[in-house]
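If your schedule permits, I should be very grateful for your opinion on a structural question. I have a record of one protein: its chain in single-letter code and its fold written as discrete structure tokens. Would you kindly read the sequence against the tokens and tell me how you understand this chain to fold? Thank you for your consideration; the sequence and its tokens are set out here.


***
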Amino acid sequence: MDSAELDGVDRGLVHALQLDGRAPFATIADVLGVSEQTVARRYRRLMAAGVIRVVGGLDGALLGYTPWTIRVRCTPDAGTAIAEALARRPDTYWVHLLSGGTEISCFAQSPDTVLLEKLPRTGRVLAMTAHSLLHGISLPDGWQGLA
């Protein structure tokens, strides 16, 4: 499903779930002015199409974790595999494959630096930079909806 196919109800549902991923369908339906069955049907359609995924996450700052932004340059044959491996890690929460598949950008939060120590030693990683995030101006958890 292409994002251009989302109508106002779909966008409202996505917005509601970004504000509260556990909001009841009845509450969302009331706010959107549609039936609870419509919200449930739209939710199932968006989930099945892979447009949305609702997951829980830890607030790493409350646990003393350090947030990192990491950029990895790798051999052309390794980009997808390394990005997928990073995406499977519980301490990595945002992964982008860049530059024709040879660069990866990701965000991680961790109480230690194990990932930062292991990643550069991976055979197909050519270079890596990592920066500790001091302050977020606009982060996914602070997003307040569509303009």
Observations:
- The two ends are 22 Å apart (CA to CA).
- The chain has a mean pLDDT of 86.
- Residues 46 and 123 are 38 Å apart (CA to CA).
